[in-house]
Each structure stands twice: as C-alpha cells, then as structure tokens.
Design a protein that fits this description.
Length: 382
C-alpha cells in the first residue's frame, strides 16, 4: 500500500494524477461541473443522439419490456431478441455479412484481436492507435511492430522486412484518429495489406455517423468497404449509447463468437443500450441524420473559419497541442473558470510532452457557444 501511495505522489508531481469529479448534464452541451455551469467541449455525443427524444423513448421501452439487464452472457441466456435485428442492420450499414455486438468498444478490441492472431503472427499498429487496440494486441501474444502515425512508407518497410517470418499479418489502424482528429491513408494501407496478404482491422469509432454515405464511415467515402476485413466500432460516440461491435464475414464473426473471451465471458449489453443504439442508427441513416451531420460539419467549419466543403473529410475532433502537461492543466483550468470544459489530454493517453486540449464539437453546439470558445482560447493561449 505504501508503494501505491508513493506512486500516486509521483503522478501528482509529474502533473499526471487523475481524479474523478461529478459531471451533471443539463441540456444540449450545457452541464454542471464542480458546482459550476459550463459548456462541454469534450463530449463524444457528436450528433447529440444520446439526448434525442426517440432514442430515450426506445431505451425506456426496452427496460419496460425486458428489464434493466440481460443478466447473463449472450451464449448463456443473455441473447435478448433486440440483438439480432440490430446486428443485421449494423452488418448491412457496414457492407458486411455479419456483425457482433460486445458490451463496449474496448471489449470488442480485446476480444477480437486475440481471437484473430496469436504467437506465430505479426500485428502492425499505427503508433497512435487507441489503448483498446494496444491492449487487444498485447493480449494476443502476437509480435507487435509499430509504424509511424499514418506513415505508409514505414508500414511498407516493416512489411518487407518481417512478413516472411510470420503466419498471419494483421494491420490495425483507426480511420479518424481519436487524439489527432486526422484521417488514415486508407487506400494505401489497403493496397499494402493486399500485396502482403494480410488482414486489416479498422477502428471506425470517430468516423461513424460523421462521414460516409448514411454516416457509415471513412471506407464508404473511398468506396473500399469490401476491402476492410474487420470494422470495429462503438455505440458510445455518434450513436449516443453504449456498447461496441465488429462487422466482417460470417466466418470471422462465427469464429469470434467461439474464441473472443470478452464476448464469451461478459454479460450481454443491456436492453436499453441496444435499443438506444439501434434507434440512433435509424436516425443516422435517415434524412434527419443527414441534417445533423451537416450541422456538425458547419460547426467544425465555423470553428476553423473555413468553408464547410474545403476538406474531403472532416473530423469533429480538433486538437490544440500544448506540450508540457503542467501547461495544459493550467490552460484547461483557466478555461474552466470562465465556463468552458476542455480537460487536458495527457500521458499515457498521448505521448509524454504532447499534452493537448482536444476540442470535441457536436451538432448541439450553437454558434454563440463556438464564438465564446474561440474568444476564450485566444485569451488563455496568449
Ligand atoms: N476506439 C477508439 C478510437 C476510442 O476512442 C474508444 C473510446 N474512447 C474506443 C475504441 C472504446 O470504445 P468504448 O468507449 O465503447 O469502450
């Protein structure tokens, strides 16, 4: 226990200590934090669907009908009738034969990756991949080689050098990166994975609902959905709920049902979360989803002071690199004093010395709120 106390002290000295504080949503992106009214610029509820009346109603109905929990893993007695139609809708949305829902996106990663590769295999990971992908890769016991962030040249070098020594090759990347808000060179990665006969797992967490036809992600914009072997996603961002999934071939999904430990040994996602996510997907695919995407795109363009169509792909995540952890904390605290919630993102979420403020824009932010943020940032960053 003394060691733990010392460890916490060390974290504090390095400005890396994290503490939980109460956060109470009020309405839209307004919330109460530590007793103060703030505007939230850190939410992943990109389209505001967690607050959509229909999404809330469907969640409530599911509780009335099926109770608050599925009360067992899906292979025991937790396979609620809500799963199958939603999985079919997800598979169709992602252009795949089948989809499989997990309790969270994190558990989708740590269940799927070790089910696909093992000791005699090679994983190639983008340096900036999300922690869930890293943890899945480590659990698999495959050899992990890291390529530079979005660096396809480096990916090719590693493939050239190491492919021959391994049985299977799995390339892992995000589509829109969570900490940088930038976009993976998907077409080039696909070309390489085909040349070296590997598999590609693409985490679409921050692209879903945002880009692509009917919001179905980055690969759809590039018309390469059939070339991505496994899509991974989460319901906790644009889908306004909770839960994760993969979409792939029927064969691969059947394999993960049998081998994915986080799928087999964890209680099924709750009925309310399934129903909420399913309803959010219907909205995302509808006319009103298109409007919400447009509003979000307009908000991003407004913040960046550019035309909404000046980029091929847009990301709701806009990082402001600060560098030192202490400095990022200080700026974030200054912003908080004037009612802006933008917590610092620090190591180990991002590399040491690259602490940042990550602005997360949503369709629910008003132009007045964005103006207020811009003015405040100008003041605090000076
Ligand atoms: N992948 C990425 C890129 C993420 O940002 C997140 C959530 N922060 C996850 C996976 C995990 O998803 P979940 O929150 O559903 O566990």
């Amino acid at each position: 226990m003394q060691k733990l106390a010392k460890g916490l002290d060390e974290l504090k000295n390095k400005n890396l200590l994290r503490r939980l504080k109460d956060f109470r949503p009020i309405e839209g992106m307004r919330a109460e934090y530590e007793g103060k009214q703030i505007i939230n610029f850190s939410s992943n509820d990109y389209l505001g669907l967690s607050q959509h009346p229909l999404v809330k109603e469907k969640a409530q109905q599911a509780i009335q009908e099926y109770g608050a929990s599925c009360s067992a893993s899906r292979l025991i007695s937790g396979n609620n009738p809500l799963f199958s139609p939603f999985e079919k809708a997800l598979a169709q949305w992602k252009g795949k034969e089948k989809a499989l829902i997990f309790p969270t996106g994190y558990s989708a990663a740590i269940g799927t990756i070790p089910a696909l590769v093992g000791k005699s295999d090679l994983i190639l990971m983008d340096k900036h991949c999300h922690a869930s992908l890293w943890d899945g890769a480590r659990l698999s016991q495959a050899t992990i080689r890291v390529f530079g962030h979005n660096d396809v040249q480096n990916l090719k070098q590693i493939l050239d050098r190491y492919t021959a020594s391994y049985e299977k090759i799995l390339i892992i990347s995000e589509s829109i990166f969570s900490m940088d808000g930038d976009v993976a060179p998907l077409a080039e990665m696909i070309e390489l994975k085909e040349r070296y006969e590997g598999l590609l797992l693409l985490d679409d967490a921050h692209a879903e609902g945002i880009v692509g036809e009917e919001g179905n992600g980055l690969a759809s914009c590039l018309q390469v959905m059939d070339k991505v072997d496994v899509f991974m996603g989460t319901f906790s961002k644009a889908l306004g709920s909770q839960g994760g999934y993969i979409a792939s071939s029927a064969l691969l999904i059947d394999w993960v049902i049998n081998k994915g430990r986080s799928f087999i040994f964890s209680t099924a996602l709750s009925p309310s979360s399934i129903a909420a996510a399913c309803s959010a997907l219907h909205i995302i695919k509808s006319e009103s989803g298109t409007e919400l995407r447009k509003k979000l795109k307009d908000n991003v363009a407004y913040f960046l002071e550019e035309s909404p169509n000046s980029r091929l792909f847009f990301s709701p995540l806009i990082p402001i690199l600060i560098g030192e952890e202490a400095k990022a904390i200080q700026v974030s605290q200054e912003l908080e004093k004037i009612g802006i919630y933008l917590p610092p993102i620090r190591y180990p979420t991002v590399p040491k010395g690259t602490a940042r403020l990550r602005i997360s824009l949503t369709a629910l932010h008003s132009t007045e709120q964005i103006d207020y943020l811009k003015g405040a940032l100008k003041k605090c960053l000076e």
